[in-house]
Design goal:
Layout lengths: L1 E9 L7 H14 L4 E4 L3 E6 L4 H13 L5 E9 L14 H11 L1 H4 L3 E4 L3 H18 L4 H12 L5 H8 L3 H10 L2 H20 L1
Parallel strand pairs: 4-5
Antiparallel strand pairs: 1-3, 1-4, 2-3
Protein name: Transcriptional regulator
InterPro entries: SatD (IPR032580)
Pfam family, one: SatD
């Protein structure tokens, strides 16, 4: 069982290319050197562990939102891998099919993030959670996005350490993470992991 994130940059032709370096760096952090691919200029695929899908989707979004007004659309697909090729876009399996289907449905659903698996009830529950989370995530400003990015890179760091890393005061870090609804995002991530593990153990 693997997870594939398929995404693209919203309105990439109208904005500066600063998002490209941010995207490349984010994909390297998530998946090392060889499990991601950027194609057609502003589209990408990356393989992640299924349990980390929400966390890494939020991380990519934070990395892109730092480059205001850039944003990102992503489809999360979880499923089996049939054939693994050197290029991710040439591999096949349910994870790729589900990821493509999730991504293709984003415009119609008017959301920037969705998940697709072979478990319809799981998808329904998690996609409602994602819709609610996007109310906050879609409105992240630059500072909020920077702090979410930093907090996800240093998950064990307390706010005083994040303040030292960012050169900001602890109160401004706290305000930014509160504005980003970071603690609620972590709660959603935990619930997603719990429900995913239940499905995988069946």
């Amino acid at each position: 069982m693997i997870c594939i994130l398929t995404g693209d940059i919203v309105g990439s032709r109208k904005i500066k290319d600063s998002w490209l370096l941010s995207l490349k760096n984010a994909l390297k952090v998530i998946s090392g050197q060889n499990k991601w691919e950027i194609y057609r200029g502003d589209s990408f695929q990356v393989e992640v562990e299924p349990e980390n899908a929400i966390k890494w989707a939020a991380y990519i979004k934070a990395c892109i939102r730092v480059n205001k007004p850039a944003d990102v659309r992503m489809g999360i697909g979880i499923g089996d891998l049939k054939s693994k090729r050197k290029k991710l876009s040439e591999s096949s399996g349910d994870a790729f099919v589900n990821s493509g289907a999730a991504f293709d449905g984003l415009k119609q659903a008017k959301v920037n993030l969705a998940v697709k698996t072979d478990w319809a009830d799981f998808d329904e529950e998690i996609n409602i959670l994602i819709k609610l989370a996007l109310i906050a995530m879609d409105s992240w400003g630059v500072v909020a996005a920077e702090m979410v990015k930093l907090a996800l890179e240093h998950e064990d760091a307390v706010q005083s350490e994040l303040a030292a890393l960012s050169g900001r005061t602890q109160s401004s870090v706290s305000e930014a993470l509160t504005r980003a609804h970071y603690s609620e995002l972590l709660e959603m991530d935990q619930l997603y992991r719990k429900k995913l593990n239940l499905m995988l153990s069946k």
